[in-house]
Amino acid sequence: MATSESRISTNTNTIRFGILGCAEIARKVSQAIILSPNSTLHVIGSRSIEKARAYAKANNFHPTTKIYGSYDEVLDDHEVDAVYIPLPTSLHVEWAVRAAEKKKHILCEKPVALNVKDLDVILNACDSNGVQFMDGTMWMHHPRTRIMADFLADSRRFGQLKTVQSCFTFAADEDFLQNDIRVKPDLDALGALGDAGWYCIRAILWAANYELPKTVTALRITENGARVILSCDASLQWEDGKVATFNCSFLSNLTMDITAIGTKGTLHINDFIIPYKEAEASFSTVSEGWFTDMALEWNKKPSEHIVTTDLPQQALMIKEFSALVDGIKRHGLQPEKKWSTLSRKTHLVIDAVIASIDKGFAPVEV
């Protein structure tokens, strides 16, 4: 694996990134920027120069990486093409809008905002300034995701989608449950719904070819003393009879599952957010399964499919984002609206879950 010490791009066509903040997730994305062949880590900025310097040293950033003691300095750097924003969700609107106004393309950590209204402020700023927007949902960029989508679209092998179940849970330790920004109402008020639930909802929409449900019903929640959600279950219903459910939690064992069931086939994946292995990922499918004559076993066993990749999914995300930015910067193309549309649909469902909770777990139209 390349490191910041071993790969410094001399290609003038690479996209130069600035990072706003020293969040834990930024360690992973900064290395992805370094690994991607069409990007380079140009600058890291924090609220203090001391923190930025310590972060750069701890992550072995190349000595040529600029270090700033404020976010504004990152945005004012005319050499920065794009910014990655891993700040607490409550700060996304302010800094994403500022970045867009400085003509910086935006890769923003999820959840992008606290609600659709705030998200629209960000997306409108991006539209007004002609900059590319993408959220940081890494698994969307793994080649496995495209291959699984081909199976779901196959009317012969999968048929018509009938139901989806998605789950993302992890058992957070006591320090996380007391101190992490994701349990603080002033920083990430959506809690587990915004953090883990984002992935579940995106997975359901992906399986449904991004068709929004008609109604959403929250089923159960657990909150901390500050009324931040620690676990949540919800159901989505479509007018054609499709149904989906999801469970997201900071209180249960690590699980990252999608099960999509059609009239002719079933897809299972058990590591959809972070694959068990970086260089390869698997999923299983079965079509027209039934029992043997004595109903002692299945007549077909699920087939395992393995997908390999030369780059980890986070680097593939950076590569795709950088290619879009390059198309705008050097070839006069328009920003790709697909990614903002997917972010907005995901947030619409999150808003509906919150509304259902507020209405005593009643169904809410999306």
UniProtKB/TrEMBL annotation:
Gene3D superfamilies: Dihydrodipicolinate Reductase, domain 2 (3.30.360.10), NAD(P)-binding Rossmann-like Domain (3.40.50.720). Residues 15-134 form the Gfo/Idh/MocA-like oxidoreductase N-terminal domain. Pfam families: GFO_IDH_MocA, GFO_IDH_MocA_C3. Signal peptide: none annotated. It comes from the Eukaryota. GO terms for molecular function: nucleotide binding. InterPro entries: Gfo/Idh/MocA-like_OxRdtase_N, GFO_IDH_MocA-like_dom, NAD(P)-bd_dom_sf. Residues 152-267 form the GFO/IDH/MocA-like oxidoreductase domain. Belongs to the Gfo/Idh/MocA family. This is Uncharacterized protein. It comes from Beta vulgaris subsp. vulgaris (Beet).
